[in-house]
Every structure is written in C-alpha cells, then in structure tokens.
Design brief:
The complex is a heterodimer. Chain A is built from seven helices and 13 strands. By secondary structure, chain A is α/β, with parallel strands linked by helices. In chain A, the strands form two sheets. In chain A, strands 2-1-13-12-3-4-5 form a seven-stranded mixed sheet. The longest helix of chain A has 22 residues. Chain B is globular, with a radius of gyration of 13 Å. About 14% of the residues of chain B have low confidence. In chain B, strand 7 and strand 8 form a beta hairpin. Classes of the chains: A alpha/beta, B mainly beta. Chains A and B meet through loops of A and strand 7 of B.
Chain lengths: 314, 104
C-alpha cells in the first residue's frame, strides 16, 4: 500500500535525477532575440574567449542545514566557492538568489558571509524565506544586506549595459498563497524601468520562481504577471531564480526564466514525490545535483549565455 | 496513520491528566498538517510537531499567533479557549493550510 506508493515515487525520482544529471553536464545556452539555442558543452564554453560581462549566480546555500540529504551543506558551499576562485576569468560580480541561511541565525549569516565573500567578487543578495525567519521577520537580513535597498530589500543597479533588478517575493506571505511581490514593490518596479530604453537587457533575480513551476508545491509567485507586464516592452529579459533546488528553463516571448541548483541539497522534480523538501540521493550522486550558474552578456550581441555547472563536473 | 495514533495516544494520556484532559497533537509531515482540520473543546492544548527535514512555522491567517521556525522534531503548543474557527498556514510555505474548530 504505502510502500508501493513510495516505490513508484522512487522510480520517478531516479528517472528525474537522470534527466537532471544530463542537464547538469554543462549545456551552454545562447539566447538571441528570446530564442535559446544550445551552442556547445561546458568544455568548449570554458575554452571560448570570454568577452563582455560575466556574472555568477549562486543559490540556496542553506548554511546551517545538517540533515541526511546533506549533513555537510557548508562543505559543498565551500566546494562551490573554491570552483569560483579557480575560474580563469573571475566573474564581474555574483548574485545570490536567497536561502543564504537555513534558519536566519546570526552564526549562519556570519558563516555564509565569510565563506561566500571569500570568493572575491562583490555579491548582490536577495532573501529567501529561510533568511527572514528571525524574530524580527527579516530584520537580521536587512541589517546585513539592506543598505541601499527599498522595503523588504529590493533594488536595482546597472552594470555592463545591463539593468539588474533584485526582487523580494518571500515576505508577508498569505495563507494559501504563493510567493508574493505585493503592491509597494510592484509600484517601485514600474517606476524603476520607466526611463529605460526597450533595448536595455534586463536581468531580474528573486528567490521563488516568477513563473508557475508547480503551484501545488507553492513553486510560483502570485503577482508575477504584473511585474512581467512592466517588462513586456524590453527585447531581452532574463529571470533568474532559486528555491526549487534544480535546473529548469522556460522561454516565453522575450523572457527567459531559469532556476539554479542549490549548493546544499536537491529537491524532487515537481510532482514526483509526496511533497517538496530535501531529497536523499546516494552520496556519490550528491555533487551532480548541486552547483552554480554562470551568465555572460556580450554588448551589441543581445545574447545572454547561461551555463550551469554541477559540483561533479570537471 | 502515525499522526492519528499520536493523537489517540495524546488523548489517552490526557485522560490521566487533570490539567489537559484532551491535549491534541498535529503532525507536520510531507508539507501537510495531519490532521488538516481538527475539532476540539475549549481549553484544549494543541501541539504541532515538525516531522519534516525542513523547518516549518505555524501562523494564524490574520497573524494573531506565529510560531518560531520549527526545525525537525521541534514543537509549538497553543491552548484554545474561545469558541470559533481558527485558520492557520505554514509561514515558510503558505500553500498548505490547516483549521482548528473550537466548540463546546
């Protein structure tokens, strides 16, 4: 009865894992005019001369996590950081798409800041829901990362001809809801992009996916459509998220949605398990489902190339 | 099944207690409250236990009460004295909801 159900789930999970393994071998996506095409494997991408702006996305570090799915989440984060340090050409900066810590504890924030900061490049953060569960519901995060941000920690900046927008969709969540941006942030966003030319490449980063990955598990954002409406007139919009601890990509018009791996633990593919949550994989497989994401933009080419690298990739 | 057994056990233990005649347990497992709807008598203490490997919190729909994040095995207790219906959800993962009905 119950065991049969679990067996079925196990097969599905294994199958999903194989798919993720395949995805994790380092396919390089070039996005031109909103249409992605695979242009080669990781090795050729690394070998290609790097020009333009390169930045790196790291997500879901969950510093403090020590459960069976990965009793040493701090060690796999360190491995990810070591890979960044070893990159022949350092990224211009890093984006952290939330769940820096597991339980918003001061020591977790300290350890994360020390380790992630040791990579070198400046890090732009947005919070995950695990980063605002302190008694002040987000005070600890904002004290550390809230300088020059609005509201719950949203902000934008320009670099290399790209406009970057960090959004917060994990605060003030309502019963039965998904991630939420809420009125004040949406107003700010509308105003933030008002003066920009439609040819400005836009990169939006936030913790919970801004597309409906799997609402049954809360993997989506209630009012994302309003935000995307403000970005409709732009020729190139790239949305980078975390939260679901696995790679997923979707293209809708000029918008490319991409979710990054965690550095801490994997989660099941949508609907393949009774619930989301830390997924136990054989120890030798763990590093193939954890990793980081590198993004490159070359001015004048309107192309954003997204490369995912698993910790197991060599 | 496990949660129901725990509830039965809690209720059984409660019979021997003078203070909390019908303490109840709600298990949080696989991102669900078990049971999702619980009917209790006024004065009953309800204890939520997180059996998942990920923290959860218990938040009343209007945020009248909010637990701290419960790590694996941690509990949150609350006594309900007023008659009525109390909706609540998980603060970290709000898509799942629960309800407590207090009636004499």
């Amino acid at each position: 009865m119950a065991d049969d159900h679990h067996d079925e789930g196990g097969i599905s999970r294994r199958h999903a894992l194989e798919c993720m393994l395949w995805a994790g071998t380092g396919v390089l996506w070039a996005v031109t005019g909103g249409v992605p095409r695979s242009i080669g494997l990781l090795d050729s991408a690394v070998a290609a001369p790097v020009t333009g702006l390169t930045f790196l996305q790291i997500s879901d570090s969950h510093v403090g996590f020590d459960k069976p799915a990965n009793p040493h989440a701090i060690d796999t984060l360190k491995e990810a950081i070591d890979r960044i340090k070893a990159m022949p050409q350092k990224p211009s900066f890093m984006l952290h798409t939330g769940d820096i810590t597991h339980l918003s504890k001061p020591a977790e924030f300290d350890n994360a800041a020390q380790l992630i900061g040791s990579a070198g490049p400046h890090v732009h953060y947005v919070p995950g829901e695990h980063d605002i569960v302190d008694e002040g519901t987000g005070k600890a995060y904002l004290e550390r990362y809230g300088q020059n941000t609005k509201g719950g920690g949203w902000y934008s900046f320009d670099q290399g001809g790209v406009h970057f927008i960090g959004l917060v969709n994990v605060a003030n969540l309502k019963a039965g809801g998904l991630g939420s941006l809420a009125h004040d942030q949406l107003e700010w966003l509308e105003d933030d992009v008002k003066g920009l030319s439609g040819s400005t490449p836009i990169v939006v980063f936030a913790h919970i996916p801004l597309w409906s990955v799997y609402p049954n598990w809360g993997w989506g954002t209630d009012d994302a459509a309003v935000a995307l409406g403000y970005l409709k007139r732009f020729g190139s919009v790239t949305v980078l998220n975390g939260h679901i601890h696995q790679l997923m990509q979707k293209v809708e018009g000029n918008v490319t949605f991409h979710t990054a791996r965690s550095t801490a633990f994997p989660q099941p593919a949508p609907g393949t398990a009774p619930s989301p949550g830390p997924m136990l994989v054989p120890a030798e497989k763990l590093r193939s489902v954890l990793g980081i994401t590198s993004v490159r933009y070359t001015q004048g080419k309107e192309a954003l190339a997204i490369t995912d690298t698993a910790l197991a990739d060599r | 099944m496990t949660a129901w057994r725990l509830i039965a056990l809690a209720a059984f233990l409660g019979l021997g207690s003078e203070v909390h005649a019908e303490d109840m347990v709600i298990q949080i497992e696989n991102f669900t409250f078990n049971p999702a709807e619980l009917t209790i008598k006024p004065g009953t203490k309800v204890t939520w236990t997180n059996a998942d490997d990920i923290p959860h919190s218990v938040v009343e729909d209007g945020t009248k009460f909010r637990s701290k994040p419960l790590d694996t095995g941690e509990t949150f207790s609350m006594a309900f004295t007023d008659v009525g219906e109390i909706g609540y959800f998980r603060g970290l993962h709000p898509h799942m909801k629960g309800k407590i009905i207090v009636k004499p």
